[in-house]
Amino acid sequence: MIKLFGYELRRLLFNKFFIGLLVITGLYSYQILSGDIIVGVANTAPFSRWSYGAFLSAVLPLLLITLLFFTTFLYSRKEKQVGAITFATPIDPLHYGFLRCLAMVTGFVVISGIAIGLSLIFYARVFHFTAFGDFLAPILLTLIPAMLFTLGVGLTAGRMHSGLLYALMLILLLLGQMPLPYSVDLLGGNFFHGLAATLPVGLEGEVVFTIPTAVWIGKAVYSIVGLALTLLWLIRLRERHS
After folding, report:
1. Alpha carbons 38 and 30: distance in angstroms, whole number
2. Do residues 140 and 52 make contact, with C-beta atoms less than 8 angstroms apart?
């Protein structure tokens, strides 16, 4: 299983499209950091949780598009030929499908790690700020629910028609421009920019980082729906190849 996982991961990461997305993500991350984030978001410090969350929400569409790009591999003509050979072996389709999902999630973590790593270097060099533990909450709140939801929706959409995956990529780019309520804001840009501007400044001269219950509920719903859709895809994969 470990060898099979390594094979699937190499297929995702060692190709020109992923490398191109990696370069674009790195350049775009630096552009956001040195442009919008360096002056702070909604009158907060550049190294506040609000500003860092805004950075993550800005690069998140590229990260999620990469995840959908991985999903397109499952529905390519070449992949269908490989799948026919693979499922002719004694391997459990459920286990194989899980490994493929795990490989895609790992690829998402890799490209997310590039963006996060660049941001930490930026903060350390420009602001001499190294209290990176403060960024854990924005990272978990922003990346995990969006990743789970996009994975589940991508697997479901691709099973219906592979062209829907490219439509989802376009939708992700448009989401960042839509004034969505905080509770359903998948990317989080409206939340990090909007709510911080309405909160009072705390005793330390910084806007207190607080997450409303409605936002937690919204993120939980996105996560649960994504997990449910992924599980349903795995079950149907097993039924189809058993």
Report:
1. 10
2. no
Distance CA 133, CA 143 (A): 16
Span 71-75, average pLDDT: 87
Burial class (CB in 10 A: 0-12, 13-18, 19+), 97: buried
DSSP alpha helices (H): ranges in 87-212?
93-126, 136-160, 163-175, 189-190
Q: 167 in helix, strand or coil?
A: helix
Each residue of 150-189: pLDDT tens digit?
999 999 999 898 899 999 999 999 988 888 899 999 999 9
Q: Please write the tens of the pLDDT for every residue from 181-205.
A: 999 999 999 999 988 888 877 666 6
Residue pointed to by tokens 């097993």: 238
Q: Count Cβ atoms within 10 A of the Cβ of residue 203 and give its class: 0-12 exposed, 13-18 middle, 19 or more buried.
A: exposed
